Amino acid sequence: MQQAVRQHFPDAEAVYKFTHRDKDVFFSRTCVEAFESSLASFEEVSLTSDEKAWLASKCPYFKPDYLDYLEQYRFKPEQVSVKFIPVSPDGRFGNIEIEATGLWMDAILWEVPMMACLSELHFRLDATDWSYDNQEHVLRQEIQLNPYGDNCSRVVYGREHIIHAGSLRAMGIDIIQVAALEGYDNANLRALQLWEQTYPDVLLTALTDTFSTQTFFKEFVQNPERVRKWTGLRQDSGNPLAFAPAAKAMYESVGVDYRAKNIIYSDAVTLEKALELKQQCDEMGFTCSFGIGTFLTNDFRTKSSSYREKSKALNMVIKLNSINGRPCVKISDDLEKNTGDAATVEFVKKKYGLLA
């Protein structure tokens, strides 16, 4: 994504905002202070020459000038503002507000490491009723898993407790930024077009739910050759069992063989859900893979329950809030779970006929 942003919108200014969805879970002042202190260390992170060479060999679609940019890139902690808002009577626990502001092509890298850092500190300092004991899961099925969970991980060591089959695949494109910058008319198609300019023959997996999958499909089928070219779809909200039948109907409506296409499921996927979806796709003829995040990197149980009860992961996101001062919104296939400026959400839902 960053390479595409750098190519098409090098001067765009972005604001990313943190949202914590669990209203009854609070952070300690100690945790927030530790988080603020940790941010200063991010400027020491850099891409090594060996890592650059590895990327060049494994990801040939990364252009040399982009790899040079990554090698020179340094996080700027001054781009991030953190505010602790106490809610407990003694002032020890409260909410946290986080914003990252800067050039879009720079600020885009803050999302994952910031949330990983906050999650790790929360479970080291605040929610400590857990351990590594009895935490291993082994999947003995032939399904492809793509680890998505670094942003919600509890600790890096936890990744060593993941045993999975399959290979990593890069995912497709988000559309909210293009719509905010260039308008909402055919925003899906414009985003796909820009993505193809950066990745003409690889990484052609389309995220369908930015303004609802039904809206995406209506625009996607306007160009059957593009439908034929793009290798797959990503399902990230709504009813996952309804997605493959809808995708099959969409492909068949323009004469494209859906059996040559892949679906990537990435919405709150567990191993049990993955197996159920794989069975459906096998029966229909789709190939499928799974982006599993929290369930892989933050799936722990409490010591106090003798490891019978789940140790609840943080339910948090960092989302693009605005581009060049224009609000960014996402509708998704859970139409009640909109994100972004309320007036813009209402405008977009009305434009695409998504109002109840």
Task: Give an account of the 3D structure.
With 356 residues, the chain is α/β, with parallel strands linked by helices. Helix content is 37%, strand content 19%. It is built from 14 helices and 15 strands. It has helices at 2-8, 29-39, 49-58, 64-72, 104-107, 111-125, 176-182, 187-198, 213-220, 224-229, 240-253, 271-284, 294-297, 342-351, and strands at 13-20, 27-28, 80-86, 93-103, 137-138, 145-147, 162-163, 205-207, 232-235, 262-265, 287-292, 300-301, 310-311, 316-323, 326-327. The strands form four sheets. Strands 1, 2, 3, 4, 14 and 15 form a six-stranded antiparallel β-sheet that branches. The chain has a five-stranded parallel β-sheet with strand order 6-11-10-9-8. Strand 12 and strand 13 (310-311) form a beta hairpin. Helix 3 runs antiparallel to helix 4. Residues 156-173 have low confidence and may be disordered.
